[in-house]
């Protein structure tokens, strides 16, 4: 299972739609948020977020887990 900090990171990114806003909310660096999401995606074998230069959104696979 995933550690609580990784799950908090996932939820923050899903709610804010932004790595930088999630970093502010969790008092972490943007690099830390990005790294945790990357590890989560590698561990699940699924792309959890669709990334653009301005935002991130849940993928269809991820949306079913989040809801």
UniProtKB/TrEMBL annotation:
Gene3D superfamilies: Winged helix-like DNA-binding domain superfamily/Winged helix DNA-binding domain
Segments passing through the bilayer: none
Keyword terms, alphabetized: DNA-binding, Transcription, Transcription regulation
Annotated HTH lysR-type domain residues: 2-59
GO molecular function: DNA binding; DNA-binding transcription factor activity
InterPro entries, per database record: LTTR (IPR050176), LysR_HTH_N (IPR000847), WH-like_DNA-bd_sf (IPR036388), WH_DNA-bd_sf (IPR036390)
This protein's name: Transcriptional regulator, LysR family
Source species: human gut metagenome
